[in-house]
Amino acid sequence: MNAIHLIDASIYVFRAYYSVATEFTDQQQQPVHAVYGFLNTLLGLLADAQPTHLAVCFDESLTTSFRNRLYPAYKANRELPPADLARQFVYCQQLCRALGLTVLVDGEYEADDLVGSAWHALKPHGFEAVLVTGDKDFSQLVDEHTVIFDVSRRERTDAAGVKRKHGVRPDQFADYLALMGDAVDNIPGISGIGPKTAASLINHFGSLDSLLARIDELPYLRMRGAAQLADRLRRGSDDARLYRQLSTIALNAPVPSTPAGYQIGGADRVALDALLEQLRFGPITRKRCLEWARNHRQAA
Predict the structure, then answer these.
(1) What beta strand segments (E) does the chain contain?
(2) Which pTM was predicted?
(3) 3-159+250-295 adopts what CATH topology?
(4) Residue pLDDT, tens place only, 116-142
């Protein structure tokens, strides 16, 4: 079975921004350390996996996502990326395109949604998927043909791994997040429900919808504060449904619908040379990029 690698690029750019030494600067003496860290992570993945189909997905919707219309407080706790990081994101996208890789970015949909929509589009074509990310939210996409691979931590998570880590199945994950909330995205969840309680409730009732439909059973469970939880859920049932909507990865973002849209193409050697010159990266990184370019020449 063919495999597609779908990369949640933003998480690795952010990791590099905060972990790589700031000694790397471009010809304008502007920082490019996040570009350097991301590019080396990407090149390592390409060398190890040797993929034939791949997409690199970036966030460009921190304040313009459709979720902001549903819930204006969504991600309101996050500051916009500093100017030097925003500039480095542009370099990362340019490098990916020069290497012949499909880049997905959209003002309405987040990288999660672009990954999810590409995953959804290619499943009918018989593809397995490797979701390259360190974000737990992708757990909801895992199935028998889909795994999460956190490339920087060399950690692979399948459906059994999701259950071990979080106590719920992948298909229950958005319901689980709706109950406990997600501080990273400023989704409050239901007061008094943490990860363990959320997992217990979802496992007992099977789903958020079943829990809300059978809420009168909750006070009789052997669970501390069950009666109070039932009252909170009765009052917050609409909120819980909204939080699930916010937590659910969209599968209808505008992405290529056929395998050809994700097939790794020929590298643009001219553009790659120009970028590497502008970025002033050292000979080892240049050599790795140019070896890739030689092996993936652009058609004449």
Answers:
(1) 3-8, 53-57, 102-104, 128-132, 146-150, 155-157
(2) 0.94
(3) Rossmann fold (3.40.50)
(4) 999 999 999 999 999 999 999 999 999
